[in-house]
Amino acid sequence: AIFLENVKGLKEKGYAVWPLITNSFDPDLTHRILQNETARRYVTEQLVFYIERYDLDGINLDFENIYDEDKDALTVFVAEISAALHAVNKVVSIDVTVPSDTANWSPCYDRQKLAQVTDYIILMAYDEHWRSSKTAGSVASIGWVERGIQSLVSNISPEKVILGVPFYTRLWQEVNGEVVRASTLTMPQADQLWKAKGLERRWLQDMGQYYFEYEEEGQRFRVWQEDTRSLQEKNSLVQKYKLGGIAAWRKGFEENSVWQVLSL
Prior knowledge:
The strands form 2 sheets. The chain has a 6-stranded parallel sheet. The protein is 38% helix and 25% strand. The chain is globular and about 55 Å long. It contains 9 helices and 11 strands. Helix 3 runs parallel beside helix 4 (71-86) and helix 6 (142-153) runs parallel beside helix 8 (228-240). A hairpin with a 2-residue loop joins strand 6 and strand 7. By secondary structure, the protein is α/β, with parallel strands linked by helices.
């Protein structure tokens, strides 16, 4: 009932609602479903049922951490879902990572074929440096984001691509130059941190981000900050490459000022 009320409220405000459907980052579960025609059909039928029941406008498929050998099976599954949802006039989008050689993370997507069977490809242009990375660095430097866009639009119509941007950053802790921990900060938390420490930020033109660092108890703390200015830089790429739009991960991590920038 609460979900129905929320959907109704959003639609009354003029929003289209595409719920996110995840595979829980579970490669084994995903493999079992992808390789079983009966399981795929059941999942597809359930998706159609609930999307129609709740009067939703479409769907966002967030399937991640998939075995590379399941690449073709994933494309087949997405094509089956798309055909079923298009038959009832619903929009289908799927999230993909920035192209790389990282196993189970990038080669598992046949981006060109996925674009052929879906309405939108959402490029998750974040996690350039993972939380478990052994090297401290930006979540989404502007050059890395742009290269990801260029790679994608070389084979896919730009209007089908939605740029996904981060509403978060990471606080890196180093001891003797080695990363010992990385924690996630929301945009307001990162802003509060440098102000509370009385620090000065430096704008890094090549990164399209502010940077600050400090030391405490023998540890070095480093932040490549996502804020309204860095997101404005990323939003300019949407215009430059004539992309279909912009998305973000995730709601609740942002500062209010970003909405004005992202709506331009």
